[in-house]
Design brief:
15% of the residues lie in helices and 41% in strands. By secondary structure, it is of the alpha+beta class. The longest helix has 15 residues. The C terminus is likely disordered.
């Protein structure tokens, strides 16, 4: 009820994608898509994916174009239908194991570009993903993400 009253003054809740802290902000000051919970940062990493609920070891390849803690955009020549669920691996460095996204749903399809929403990932992979986003924002995208 308190947040509804704050809403009348154009003040609403916001959750930081890096630290998960929830706080109030003045609405209209956040400059990203209102349908998206977190702002995406531009990146370019190779990714590999397969159907989420399949035991196939065959992976399709693509390029990660932007990333947030809640989703990403990838480019791939492999046709994938909207609402399809994928399991993905993000190759950040050759020295580190890939970041594993257990379940991501295709929300948008625009030619060879897919907009994905992350549905589930293990806590340790979420920590690695947050570190990767922070390193990109601080201009150090090539650092290992451990």
């Amino acid at each position: 009820m308190r947040e509804s009253l704050w809403g009348l003054l154009m003040i609403g809740p916001y959750r930081c994608q890096f630290c998960s802290h929830r706080f109030l902000v003045i609405l209209g000051r956040i400059s990203f898509s209102p349908g998206r919970e977190h702002k995406r940062v531009p990146v370019q990493y190779p990714i590999y994916f397969r159907p989420a609920f399949s035991t196939d070891t065959v992976l399709a390849a693509g390029t990660l174009l932007d990333l947030s803690i809640g989703g990403c955009t990838i480019e791939t020549p492999v046709p994938v239908p909207k609402a399809f669920c994928l399991s993905m691996q993000i190759e950040v460095t050759e020295q580190e194991p890939p970041i594993q996204i257990e379940n991501a749903r295709v929300r948008t399809v625009n030619g060879k570009r897919l907009g994905l929403e992350f549905l589930s990932l293990r806590p340790e992979e979420e920590v690695r993903l947050r570190r990767l986003i922070l390193s990109v924002l601080h201009g150090r995208p090539s650092e290992p993400v451990t």
